[in-house]
Amino acid sequence: MSDLTESLLSMGEVKLGIQSATSVGYDTQALGLMAVAVGLAAVDIALMSDLGVLWWLPLAGLAASLTIGVATISQPEIETGQNLTLAMGMDGTIEGRRDLLLRSLADAIEANTDSLAGKRALVTLATALIGFAFLLLGVAQLLPAAYDLVTKTLV
């Protein structure tokens, strides 16, 4: 096996390992964000009488964040390349098998890159939706006060 082929196989294996760990990391972040969203929803519901009539408004952002979290962890698993047992059992030269493995690694790495970009976007969106829920909580608190201020000023 040439040094270049060995280097390419080694780099491909390392890249697939990194992509796999990154995918698990995004799934873990999504699960953590889901736990935060559920906790904040529980606090919102527990404090509904203190939060006023619009106490339910932040639940929209939290529910959306939970939905995005589920979508994140529901993404397909990382591609790991060709089935090695199948490749070893194929007829052909050793060079042909190496080429097949290299192409398989390259295809898996490229497919994973797109998948990981999607997971990263979903985790970012789930995080933003939790921030949006906090914004909605502020709006829910300010709207009744603003309404009272406007009605007292006009009267």
Shape: rod-shaped
Number of domains: 1
Largest sheet, in brief, is: none
What portion of the residues fall into strands of 2 or more residues?
under 5%
Number of E-state strands? 0
Mean pLDDT: 87
Percentage of helical residues? over 70%
Helical stretch count?
5
Structural class: mainly alpha
Gyration radius, in Å: 25 Å
* SSE order: HHHHH
What gap, in angstroms, lies between the N and C termini? 89 Å
Q: What low-confidence regions span 5 or more consecutive residues with pLDDT below 50?
A: none
Protein model, in words:
Helix content is 85%, strand content 0%. The protein is an all-alpha fold and 155 residues long. The chain has one domain (3-154). The protein is rod-shaped. The termini are far apart. The model has no long low-confidence stretch (mean pLDDT 87).
Overview features:
155 residues; mainly alpha
Provide a quick synopsis of the model:
The protein has helices spanning 3-46, 48-51, 57-73, 84-89, 94-154.
Per-chain topology:
Blueprint: H1 3-46, H2 48-51, H3 57-73, H4 84-89, H5 94-154
Helix pairs in contact: 1-3, 1-5, 3-5
